[in-house]
Amino acid sequence: MGNILISALENRENIVLLGHLHPDGDAIGSTLGLYNYLKENYPEKKVDLYLDDPAKKFSYLAGFEEIRTEYEEGRTYDLCISLDSSDTERLGVFLPYFETAAHTLCIDHHRTNPGFADENLVVPEASSCAEVLFGLLDGEKISRCTAECIYTGIIHDTGVFKYSSTSRATMDAAGFLMEKGIPFGDIIDGSFYRRNFVQNKMLGIALLKSRRILDGDCMISVVTRNNMEDNGAGPQDMDGIIDQMRNTDGIECAVLLYEGKEGEFKASLRSNHWLDVSAIAQSYGGGGHIRAAGCTLRGDADTVTAVITNAVAEAIKKDKPNV
Ligand SMILES: [Mn+2]
After folding, report:
1. Range of the domain at 249
2. Superkingdom of this entry's organism (predicted)?
3. How close is the Cα of 26 to the center of ligand 1, in Å?
4. In angstroms, what is the span from residue 185 Cα to ligand 1's centroid?
């Protein structure tokens, strides 16, 4: 079988790369990884990368400053490559570039991806889109800059080699990339574990306000608009708090409610072993996975706390194994 990327690049000079909305480490790492690889190995081709507001913590990646973040009317391309996006809707405002491109290629690892492009490489067993991309590149031609991008994508979608999607192939790819001389420790700390001062303060507040309820099975915390405004915090400062809560000895599930807008609470839910939190989130119009889900609830702090507590209590009754 030929290489789907190499054949797509043939005779196509004007190329656009796209990732999904609210790009995570994998979307940013895989698109920038391919961007750098093409710039270095195909200098005759013109390559643009569009992403929706990529987080500054990824600015150590080469090419970050060249990412275009605004849709520009009237541009069309010979080839559009979509990375880490499970459907066309997730391409957001940049969708017209995909729709008007003469040829399209989709590289992804989401199980739900229908194969929406002219040519598709969707590998559900892969830990990350970055791992799928790695398999398409010539290892000899991967520079240190490109290696940093791909490594970043892999660590973000595996929770630093921890999630069940991590495989031998993932570790082999990571090992190969390490030999390019990348500062892997700094990449992991800087882009995955480091929190800014406000984020750490909000973590402290959420933990201080937390309670253990429902016979100790659940840890819940409610952060109000006032708590956030007092510290100049926004929704992006609440990332990762729920994961710290989940990793508490003896609990099955963690619930974090924070008031993103006046009277509107974001609920993040995590479970450890047996509780299906996606079912809870779905019944309030949200979604997610069995062990990680979220939804939005309207009302004051007391009301939304009561609503989510009841829902979790019901779910525990249903899901808790008899011991
Ligand atoms: Mn991904």
Report:
1. 197-319
2. Bacteria
3. 5
4. 21
| Predicted TM-score of the model (pTM) | 0.82
Cα–Cα distance measured from residue 206 to residue 220, given in angstroms and rounded to the nearest whole number: 9
- Cα separation, 241 vs 206, in Å, equals 8
Distance 311 CA to ligand 1 centre (A): 30
CA distance 251 to 225: 27
What CATH number does residue 215 fall under?
Answer: 3.10.310.30
Residues 250 and 185 in one domain: no
Q: What separation in Å is there between the alpha carbon of 32 and the centre of ligand 1?
A: 14
**How much distance in Å is there from the Cα of 159 to the middle of ligand 1?**
11
pLDDT in tens, 143-182: 999 999 999 999 999 989 988 889 999 999 999 999 999 9
- What total of structural domains would you count in the chain? 2
